[in-house]
């Protein structure tokens, strides 16, 4: 705990040797000393006269938050000229003679000409007001700020340079935020030929170069340059093909076309890039980002420090492989080529992958053994996750069988005609199945997911990005290698990409221009996080698997314990395992009820009593904290209901629309349950564990969806397809079908072509 002005705050364990910039965004959270450069476009209003107060207040709040974490924050700010221009304009209007104002009339007063204001005078008038504003804002967070005005000479004169350095270090030591600006009231115009001249010299001719010089001089860890654009683009922002550059490396300048500078300020993007590269060479990491966008400006600085993918990050370490953006583009191009293959060729790829799973069994199990040993040594995985991580010969054999099922059933998946209509004479319309595009599948601790999902993507002609957990890195690597070997037989190796970069899941979920559908495979927490993080990309999946089994009064004694045991105990960590057991009230204190309880005790299942069940018992198990609990272990809740109708109502109120079961011999009761329960999977006298793509005969699944749009339940090939419309005409125009036109609509349904059932 550190204290300043009697206000305690938590300090972070931040320290590192300066001299080398951070290689990856994820390391930025370790930045101790940070310079935030606020460009003129960030600080000023759109009319260039006055300050954007709301935006400035948000920036001060973020800087204060980081300062109170124990970081050392410095601000290089523009805005004095704009603030001064506002004040001087106001003073000029007030200084007009009263007589002139009275005789000129109100309308003429509004149109009075204001002389062109000289920038140095504006700066002189605005500097004190700008600093007073900063002081007032920082005071709200019990933080003191101090102003420092500099010129280029202060860096070239050795004594002044040492004085400046000492002053800044002393302010930082006292937990004061230095606010630095060029002294525009006296600064001379920039020398025309003065530019960046190596690591020891930089001409301070704008606040970009000032921030870079200051960052290197003070050995800062991070320089954040806020402007009015999202970051650095490969061509001028706004042009058709402009793409935001996520990471910029020294030497990439040739691939960038710079546009004009911002509406205000001295420098443009080219000046920012030059200053950023100079700072990077001096050991300071740099991020250029948008500080004006209303949706992100309130957290842009903290997002950058947290390592989120915001703006353009400058790095000296160029990764060996492609970036995730490049992988996304490769997956889209490869997916389109894949979709254009003949069905037999796509099936051949899947058959080859299935054979590889058994032929290369030893190599796969050896890689998996490494993952298991590392996970056990680090102790970071719970037992259910370790089970998911583990591969075996039987698992690989089952995977191979499932893949062959996919290959056999995929012959007419892509390009299948599902509707034909004759719109008019010689004008025929078809609706055909097509791939969705590029899928992003994020999975935890389950390497068997990789070949399953890859096979489904191949069968449906989709490009695929895979993001596996680091705990399965060795297993995923060899399985992806085998997948690419299979794809190579028809030249579509790039269609399936494994993301190995340090990309955060939240950042991947923002790539809405590259990804068409996100499919999470993992814990309910993972799914919820992805659903929250996804920006403009649909997410297919379920956040919880709260599955119910309802035991009716007419249930068979022989069936009840078998179905309940299988639903709960066969694989308790699965999303389709029983979590809540609903029992009809009339079954309490019967031999059947006793058999259920005895079986659960033998299987070592911990029982939690629902409120109603607890009220019937003198000594009850621990009462459940919530009826909406997914245990994922040998635990379950038991609750009592008075009827099948009440069971349905309970499922709708507390369930997750995943899988729900009724056990009864009464067909009428069963049909009522089947028709009224609004879940993705509803079963009669069968285990919840049948809710699975392989068991449904889909070969495999990319997941189980509880969504009500597009795909629901276990999602196989069909769920990875969408449709497009094909219209074939002969010189048809809509005007021919008007009231006085020569043609009429027929809208006749045409027979569908015969499906390939082999």
Automatic annotation (TrEMBL):
EC number(s) on file: 1.2.1.41, 2.7.2.11
GO biological process, alphabetically ordered: L-proline biosynthetic process
Keyword tags: Amino-acid biosynthesis, ATP-binding, Kinase, Mitochondrion, Multifunctional enzyme, NADP, Nucleotide-binding, Oxidoreductase, Proline biosynthesis, Transferase
Ranges where the Aldehyde dehydrogenase domain occurs: 324-588
Catalytic activity: L-glutamate + ATP = L-glutamyl 5-phosphate + ADP; L-glutamate 5-semialdehyde + phosphate + NADP(+) = L-glutamyl 5-phosphate + NADPH + H(+)
InterPro entries: AceGlu_kinase-like_sf (IPR036393), Ald_DH/histidinol_DH (IPR016161), Ald_DH_C (IPR016163), Ald_DH_N (IPR016162), Aldehyde_DH_dom (IPR015590), Asp/Glu/Uridylate_kinase (IPR001048), G-glutamylP_reductase_CS (IPR020593), G5K_ProBA (IPR041744)
Entry's localization field: Mitochondrion matrix
Molecular functions per Gene Ontology: ATP binding; glutamate 5-kinase activity; glutamate-5-semialdehyde dehydrogenase activity
PROSITE patterns: GLUTAMATE_5_KINASE, PROA
Pathway this chain belongs to: Amino-acid biosynthesis; L-proline biosynthesis; L-glutamate 5-semialdehyde from L-glutamate: step 1/2; Amino-acid biosynthesis; L-proline biosynthesis; L-glutamate 5-semialdehyde from L-glutamate: step 2/2
GO cellular component, one term: mitochondrial matrix
Database matches in Pfam families: AA_kinase (PF00696), Aldedh (PF00171)
Ranges of residues in domain Aspartate/glutamate/uridylate kinase: 32-290
Statement: the UniProt record of this protein carries the keyword Oxidoreductase: yes
HAMAP family per UniProt: ProA (MF_00412), ProB (MF_00456)
Family: In the N-terminal section; belongs to the glutamate 5-kinase family.
Biological role stated in the UniProt entry: Bifunctional enzyme that converts glutamate to glutamate 5-semialdehyde, an intermediate in the biosynthesis of proline, ornithine and arginine.
Subunit structure: Can form homodimers/multimers.
Protein name listed in UniProt: Delta-1-pyrroline-5-carboxylate synthase
């Amino acid at each position: 705990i550190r204290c300043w002005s009697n206000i305690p705050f938590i300090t972070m364990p931040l320290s590192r040797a300066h001299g080398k910039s951070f290689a990856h965004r994820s390391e930025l959270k370790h930045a101790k000393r940070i310079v935030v450069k606020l460009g003129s476009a960030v600080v000023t209003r759109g009319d260039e006269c006055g300050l954007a107060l709301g935006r400035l207040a948000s920036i001060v709040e973020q800087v204060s938050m980081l300062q109170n974490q124990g970081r050392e924050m410095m601000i290089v700010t523009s805005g004095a000229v704009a603030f001064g221009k506002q004040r001087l304009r106001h003073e000029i209007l007030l200084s007009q003679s009263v007589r002139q104002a009275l005789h000129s009339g109100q309308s003429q007063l509004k149109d009075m000409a204001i002389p062109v204001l000289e920038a140095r005078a504006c700066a002189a008038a605005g500097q004190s007001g700008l600093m007073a504003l900063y002081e007032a804002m920082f005071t709200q967070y019990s933080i003191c700020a101090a102003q420092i005005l500099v010129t280029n000479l202060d860096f070239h004169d050795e004594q002044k340079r040492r004085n400046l350095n000492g002053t800044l270090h002393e302010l930082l030591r006292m937990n004061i935020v230095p606010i630095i600006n060029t002294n525009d009231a006296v600064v001379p115009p920039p020398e025309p030929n003065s530019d960046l001249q190596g690591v020891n010299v930089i001409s301070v001719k704008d606040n970009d170069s000032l921030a870079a010089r200051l960052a290197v001089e003070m050995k800062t860890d991070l320089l954040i340059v806020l402007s009015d654009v999202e970051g650095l683009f490969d061509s001028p922002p706004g042009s058709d093909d402009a793409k935001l550059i996520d990471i910029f490396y020294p030497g990439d300048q040739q691939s960038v076309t710079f546009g004009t500078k911002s509406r205000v300020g001295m420098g443009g993007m080219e000046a920012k890039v030059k200053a950023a590269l100079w700072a990077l060479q001096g050991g300071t990491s740099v991020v250029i980002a948008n500080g004006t966008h209303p949706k992100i400006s309130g957290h842009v600085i903290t997002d950058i420090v947290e390592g989120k993918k915001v703006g353009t990050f400058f790095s000296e370490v160029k990764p060996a492989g492609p970036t995730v953006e490049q992988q996304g583009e490769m997956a889209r191009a490869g997916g389109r080529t894949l979709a254009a293959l003949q069905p037999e060729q796509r099936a051949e790829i899947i058959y080859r992958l299935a054979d590889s799973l058994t032929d290369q069994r030893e190599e796969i199990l050896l890689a998996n053994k490494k993952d298991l040993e590392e996970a056990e040594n680090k102790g970071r995985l719970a037992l259910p996750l370790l089970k998911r991580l583990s591969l075996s010969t039987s698992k690989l054999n089952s995977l191979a069988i499932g893949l062959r099922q996919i290959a056999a059933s995929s012959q007419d998946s892509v390009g299948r005609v599902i509707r034909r209509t004759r719109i008019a004479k010689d004008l025929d319309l078809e609706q055909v199945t097509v791939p969705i595009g590029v899928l992003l599948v994020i999975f935890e601790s389950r390497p068997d997911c990789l070949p399953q999902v890859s096979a489904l993507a191949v069968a449906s002609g989709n490009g695929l990005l895979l993001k596996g957990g680091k705990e399965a890195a060795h297993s995923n690597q060899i399985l992806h290698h085998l997948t690419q070997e299979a794809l190579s037989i028809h030249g579509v190796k790039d269609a399936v990409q494994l993301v190995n970069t340090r990309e955060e899941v939240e950042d991947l979920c923002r790539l809405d221009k590259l990804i068409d559908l996100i499919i999470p495979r993992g814990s309910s927490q993972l799914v919820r996080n992805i659903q929250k993080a996804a920006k403009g990309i649909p997410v297919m999946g379920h956040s919880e698997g709260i599955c119910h089994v309802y035991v009716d009064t007419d249930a068979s004694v022989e069936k009840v314990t078998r179905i309940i045991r299988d639903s709960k105990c066969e694989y308790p960590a699965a999303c389709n395992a029983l979590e809540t057991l609903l029992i009809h009230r009339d079954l309490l204190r019967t031999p059947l009820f006793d058999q259920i309880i005895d079986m659960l005790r033998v299987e070592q299942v911990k029982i939690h009593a629902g409120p109603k069940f607890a009220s019937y018992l003198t000594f009850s198990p621990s009462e459940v904290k919530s009826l909406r609990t997914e245990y994922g272990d040998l635990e379950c809740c038991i609750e009592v209901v008075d009827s099948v109708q009440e069971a349905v109502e309970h499922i709708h109120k507390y369930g997750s629309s995943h899988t729900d079961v009724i056990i009864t011999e009464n067909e009428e009761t069963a049909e009522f349950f089947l028709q009224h329960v609004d879940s993705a999977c509803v079963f009669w006298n069968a285990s919840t564990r049948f809710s699975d793509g392989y068991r449904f005969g889909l070969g495999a699944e990319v997941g189980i969806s509880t969504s009500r749009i597009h795909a629901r339940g276990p999602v196989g090939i069909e769920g990875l397809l969408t449709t497009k419309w094909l219209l074939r005409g002969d010189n048809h125009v809509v005007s021919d079908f008007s009231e006085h036109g020569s043609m009429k609509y027929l809208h006749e349904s045409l027979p569908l072509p015969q499906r390939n059932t082999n």
